[in-house]
Write a structure and sequence with these properties.
By secondary structure, the protein is of the alpha/beta class. The chain has a single domain, classed as Rossmann fold (3-Layer(aba) Sandwich), CATH 3.40.50. Helix content is about 25%, strand content about 30%. It has a 6-stranded mixed beta sheet with strand order 4-3-2-5-6-7. Strands 1-9-8 form a 3-stranded antiparallel beta sheet. Helix 3 links the parallel strand 2 and strand 3. The protein starts with a helix and ends with a strand. Keywords: Cytoplasm, Glycosyltransferase, Magnesium, Metal-binding, Nucleotide-binding, Purine salvage, Transferase. Its main location: cytoplasm. It holds the Pfam family Pribosyltran.
């Protein structure tokens, strides 16, 4: 048995089916980077991207390299899933911002947006506005609009998807599969 099999044995029987390829992700990242660069071309304020850990770390790292203008980044850590395959609705703030957002244009970078509770309930939108950011917008790799419980305006979206539990490219199932270079759908065996 290989190491990955040993680690995932503790999870319910499942398989990961490829869904969005590495090439599709990289192509879309280049498009998002160009769009952000163009949108902030004539803006002379600092641009700060705030990645939501852990899932958005890989997305943020690739996204900032596709933006052709000066950019800063920082992280917050929020938990709403634990080891489950669906959100509990309870959000915990684990790490706050290190950098000041005052006078900066802020883009919150999230791996996936489904219910909207993570971004909204975690205080990110309102808290960043209350810290005197010049503007606050949202960039998500994946958007699941069918699951939305809180309205969130997404300015930059990688892919809109149906209600699938996905892993890879930073997203996990009980901390597994974050290192996959593509996005896969987790299918739980009955």
């Amino acid at each position: 048995m290989n190491r990955m099999s040993d680690i995932t044995e503790a999870l319910p029987p499942h398989r990961v089916v490829p869904f969005i390829t590495e090439e599709q992700i990289q192509h879309r990242l280049q498009q998002l980077g160009k769009q952000i660069t163009e949108d902030y071309r004539d803006v002379h304020r600092p641009l700060l991207l705030v990645g939501v850990l852990k899932g958005a770390a890989i997305f943020l790292a690739d996204l900032v390299r596709s933006i052709s203008r000066p950019v800063e980044f920082d992280f917050v850590a929020i938990s709403s899933y634990g080891k489950a395959t669906h959100t509990s609705g309870e959000v915990r703030i684990l790490k706050d911002l290190d950098a000041s957002v005052a006078g900066k244009d802020v883009i919150i970078v999230e791996d996936i947006l489904d219910t909207g509770l993570t971004l909204r309930f975690s205080y990110l939108m309102e808290n960043i506005r209350n810290r005197h950011a010049a503007s606050v917008s949202v960039c998500v790799l994946l958007d699941k609009p069918s699951r939305r419980r809180v309205p969130i305006e997404v300015r930059y979206c990688g892919f809109r998807i149906d209600n699938h539990f996905v892993v890879g490219y930073g997203m996990d199932y009980a901390e597994q599969y974050r290192n996959l270079p593509y996005i896969g759908i987790v299918e739980i065996s009955e």
